[in-house]
Prior knowledge:
By secondary structure, this protein is α+β, with helices and mostly antiparallel strands. The protein is built from six helices and ten strands.
Amino acid sequence: MNLDVNPLESLYHRTVALRKEFVAALRANPQVVDPSLYTFIEQGATKNLADLFGDQRDLVVIHNMGKQCKYCTLWADGLNGLLRQITSRTAMVVMNADDPAVQHAVAAERGWNHRMVHDAGGAFAVALGFGSLTDGKLSLTPGYSSFYKDTDGTITRIGFDFFGPGDMYMPVFPMFELLKDGANGWQP
């Protein structure tokens, strides 16, 4: 079999260029965040945003919808598999509004080793555009934010993006797209 890859190679290079342009747009409006405005619970301890960095200068916060979202658990499963590589470059936490006991139970059940952080009431998610409050009810959207902590302690949100079925952050979606019948109704 002799595949004509030249048109595909050209399309690949255009796609890479578009991805670079997209990433530049995602990073185009960095915002300084006051770490004292938000508190979180991690393993029973109250923390602020600065605490989540540990000894790293970069932090990725995964905005997770919690136990009720089978897609969010899929992304957390995938991140768990990449945890060593991710944390060799940046601190990372999975954050949602689930009670810490629920977070612990789900993490134990699924074999997760990543840090789980409780965002009480979803205030942080709402402030960053990953949640909304309507009539006192919290509605969350999955995705992630990246942060940088400067030597003077200033924390800046560098960029963000949303998760959703078919995105590039979960490898099963692009892999399934190349199957004969695509995802064929598959759900996690």
